[in-house]
Write a structure and sequence with these properties.
single chain, 8 strands, globular
């Protein structure tokens, strides 16, 4: 589980603009993570720039691009990239040990279709991603901020939904997942009210876990204990 951004929101879900709205969480890297940062960052790392990325240049090809916000330690992101070599993948994470672990796993798996940002997700989405350039955006198990007084800190807010919509191409999908039922209801409420989206659920409000999202160890344990996980998939329609 990853705290995807330290940007804060007010009661209406608007971003509070600060001179510096986030802190890169350095953490303590293992020897392997530090080595991966040194060796793999020149290959897979994306340095933040306020200029939009040229995805064809970054990946050396034309292909649909999937972006994941807050990939944690990156295990499932690497698994997804390995399972779908025909797609490009971009991951964003503020926690440096997670970035190091992801790079190490990707190198070991021989994955070549993955690039990562060690930066705040909101800034990357606002400035580094061209409008209408993504086929899918993934937000899996973001910090639930489960206390009621902290709900305003949840990343899924109306302004955020609009930011994601701008980044997606028409027909592109915003895929969210959470293991907090209260947050799933909040996500559903925000996304159902967001203009230009259509819920892809055929039956009810949520979708079954799609094959492209790997089952994490944490989630498998939750299933055994009877805990629920809720997936939402909203398609950009306009």
């Amino acid at each position: 589980m990853s705290e995807v951004t330290t940007a804060e929101f007010n009661e209406e879900g608007k971003y509070l603009r600060k001179v510096r709205s986030f802190v890169l969480r350095e953490g303590r890297l293992t020897k392997g993570q530090a080595q991966a940062m040194e060796q793999q960052w020149p290959v897979m790392g994306l340095d933040y720039s306020p200029e939009p990325l040229d995805l064809v240049k970054v990946f050396g090809r034309e292909a649909d691009t999937v972006l994941e916000i807050g990939f944690g330690m990156g295990a499932s992101l690497v698994e997804m990239a390995k399972a779908a070599p025909e797609l490009n993948f971009i991951g964003i994470e503020v926690h440096k040990p997670g970035v190091g672990a992801c790079l190490a796993d990707a190198a070991e798996a021989g994955v070549t279709n993955l690039r990562v940002f060690h930066h705040d997700a909101i800034e990357v989405l606002e400035n580094s991603i061209q409008s209408g350039s993504l086929a899918r955006v993934q937000l899996f198990f973001p910090d639930p901020w489960h206390k009621k007084r902290h709900h305003k800190r949840r990343i899924v807010q109306p302004e955020f939904a609009e930011l994601i919509r701008r980044c997606l191409k028409i027909g592109g999908v915003f895929h969210l997942a959470t293991d907090w039922e209260n947050y799933s209801e909040h996500m559903l409420e925000v996304m159902s009210a967001a203009p230009g989206y259509k819920n892809q659920a055929q039956d009810g409000d949520f979708v079954p876990r799609p094959d492209h999202r790997p089952l994490t160890k944490f989630e498998a344990r939750g299933h055994r204990l009877g805990h629920g996980v809720w997936d939402l998939m909203f398609e950009r329609t306009e």
